[in-house]
């Protein structure tokens, strides 16, 4: 195999690795392509038949092994197609790519044309098939087009529809085939396989090869010379250089960007924008960044490739990390069942309605209908930052090049548009008139020889060159070169606008990268356990409008890989994309020194483009075209056997393989250049072995793409799957996981498509199942770690530091994972959400069972009833069906996907997600009916582990349902629990209650006398904060001692306890008829305690949290805190308020609890005022702090009237007036809130209006203090009072706002 070695030596540096010819194998004859979905009702000319790789040169390249199945499938994704002389036979071009296991890509460029069938066996077989078809379908002998070509491009179908001559021929031939009358043609493909996407150059080379075959006279040299030249004598252009090499008729120029420029992208972005329009493209770009499932849909393979490559090119500096199959062959449609993010292209059949396209999962799918210029987006995803301004800037760039930003704007006819794309000479193809002239000239042997001689001697034959589609453009360039330059410039300018957005958004990303490992080996070993990026700090540094998008994006695999590459760059050479991006950030810093804290959400336009729209890169591109850096060796005669491969017009000859399997021996100098690249590839491969879950999946998917056989989805009827491989230790798995995947790929590549063994198929599926389980483990772990906060994890306690935004992102990600798990291995898809569909099946079965049980007279046994004497919350039964009914009753949710997500959020908030899903999956008969045997949900061990991971989420509290569905109506249940030992539980007055939450209040709700329990519906109140409880003081028993009020959200089951422990009634306690109670969330599983909860609440543990009940209403029987404890309590209360305001606005929670709750500011100040207070009088009424305030105010007012205060300083006088005014307003309020309630209100208003520290000195100076306070009281100690003022001073920095329930009825 010396030829192989010679061929492979310089492979990495060669322009092309393989030249391939695909077509019909006359020896095997016509083989129907069952995998492509055979339709026997169609005319035989419309059916698809198996194609074969007829030849490929060289035999193999060590660097890039030849994959025959994959290449054949992608060169002719729909197999062979036949035509007659009556049909259009325009040649077509498309490209494809193959993703290798290490994530690297190989590109293929295919020129497909029609060649006359000369084999009598094939013609007679087609004749027989046609006669059989006519006999079976006599009605089908009507004129019809045979448009199902291997290209199946829009062009072919349109040509047929429009061509008058072809329609007349077809009516004569009646759309059939008659061997005696018709000429039969079959598709054949010429393909170049290259390591880099030089699309324009390959297109022109293949086009010229085809022209050489169809020309009237032979080409200047045998075709072997040109193939040998491009395979072995044309190198890749070095970075930043241009290269000229020679096709059959014209030279071809290609160039490669320099090290500091954006990477190579030869697919025309302008065409992508034309096909979709700017707005649709930005939305598609957004979905790609958020790693959704993306399906492109078009009749034209090249359009699929152009859009796929265009969108992945725009991701710079990030790279798509998942399944990437821009052209999905018909035989691989099962691939759409993959439960992972993907970007795939699907060829649409002519006349197929989108609604008939059955897709396994659509919950997270972005469907792009390229031909109809429309896009279907998933529900509920964040928009790209500054989207309107971004679209505006892109539109301006397009308009400079005469492209409409709207996209899909049809010219005179869609056929004309495609004709212009195909025939305007931009790609070496010829228009109609020029083709006629050229054929005339090529028919003249003398002129042909003259032209060939002129080319060899370097003389330019202008007229002929013009006719050949290579007319002169500006500056001596041909029109084709002009067009390519224009495309290249437009590509760069559009990409610069996209790159500029990322440079702006991630300008400071390096500051948040966590470099924690001492060396590469330890980093690779501990990769999964490490935090590599400080997400919370990064988000806190971003402008608020960017947060919804960024919080989702930094959770993606492409961002994780980008950060991994950044960390690895401290030990290794920088990854090329990262190097370019970091260079741009450094350059931006030089021009614009921006402090990270001054983040602005104002749109920053791309600064790289100058006024003219030109940039340094566009100028470099033009420069390289004007001054060609390298010229490859010209094609030359080879040492060939004479008489073989004789020229025959219209037929591609059989090439001499012996001269094409070996390259020239003097090219080994190229191989030295690739040593660095080879080492880099090895390191990259090593890195991917340690990347997280999605890269594992990518590897597996890479294998599948490589061998292009997903028949493994149908093994239901085959023998059972083999035993799973034994479990390894974590470190072993880490190292061996990728090797397993690779060896799997190699095994799969060998057998033919039909020979896939069930064992290999099952093994591949285990990879998906294990991958989903691993993703579940990582997601739940991440949710727990973020929710608890890093300090909590390290120290075992600490305040939760997760923001609502991050939480929402993680929960949306969990919803997406559950949808993918429920979509895996689905038998029949119903609706867009697989999970909701399963729930509906479950609901139908359960309701049927309920109905049967209701009809049967059998008793279910005695129900457990609570004793009548106890008052409390009746328990809430956990039920999958009940929660479904709640969701179904929500009119705001219109789709199945939305309902499934709402149900997941509700179950998570109720801490029932794992339990509900276990219940759902316990109906095994239903699961078997809905899922194939390989589905995740039918793998018992993995399913158990999955439910266990979800169970761990019960350790933290989520409000992900309450906080998202803010406008829905929710039923609430309120129960009032009196203290029975000390009073009648009943009262003759009419009680009422008003419940308030973060989103609003319920309004006053009257409670039926002596019932003490009520339910009411009102719009979602959010987390509950306060309850106002009161009565109208009517009747004889108008006094009421209430222990607490319990309120429950009947949908989420969240129960709040509002402690009271005070009297309501005139002439008792502080005379209050109404109290504002502050709530706290009760423990979820304490249902029984609610029933037994008719007792005084337990004493709080912390001295700073002593209930003021013990000091006031209970006559001071409770223990009295020391002055040090009181001061500590005040400090803690103020500290909590400061912390509250330092959180992002949306994450702050309730300020009311911090002001009036158990450990709030009001309670702490009451302790301060009660210290040393002479409250209990012998044979007299209890005196309250409010009495002291009123007496002090009365003294101030009388002193003012007598003129004593006129000598005081002006500010002090104003302060005195403000205190008197506030006390008067509180006293004249229509509410009966009692003396303690009034003091609470005064403190809250003083804190809000920043007056507390001015009022304190007035109260201390007032002579009344000596009568009402002991000498040792804290209020009479000037040092302590000054310290208190200093502490309260810190609250002046914050805008305190009070809940409406606190200040209702106060007129200031």
UniProtKB/TrEMBL annotation:
UniProt cross-references to InterPro entries, sorted A to Z: cDENN_dom (IPR001194), dDENN_dom (IPR005112), DEN5A/B (IPR047278), DENN_C (IPR043153), PLAT/LH2_dom (IPR001024), PLAT/LH2_dom_sf (IPR036392), PLAT_RAB6IP1 (IPR047277), Run_dom (IPR004012)
CDD domains recorded: PLAT_RAB6IP1
Ranges for domain UDENN: 33-573
Similarity comment: family membership: Belongs to the RAB6IP1 family.
Region Disordered: start-end pairs: 134-169, 663-688, 850-871, 1095-1118
Cross-referenced Gene3D superfamilies: 1.20.58.900, 3.30.450.200, 3.40.50.11500, PLAT/LH2 domain
Origin species: Oncorhynchus kisutch
Domain RUN stretches: 805-966, 1152-1303
Main localization category: membrane
GO cellular component: membrane
Segment forming the signal sequence: none
Protein's name in the database: DENN/MADD domain containing 5B
Keyword line: Guanine-nucleotide releasing factor, Membrane, Repeat
Domain PLAT: 970-1078
Regions of compositional bias (Polar residues) in chain numbering: 663-677, 1102-1113
GO molecular function: guanyl-nucleotide exchange factor activity; small GTPase binding
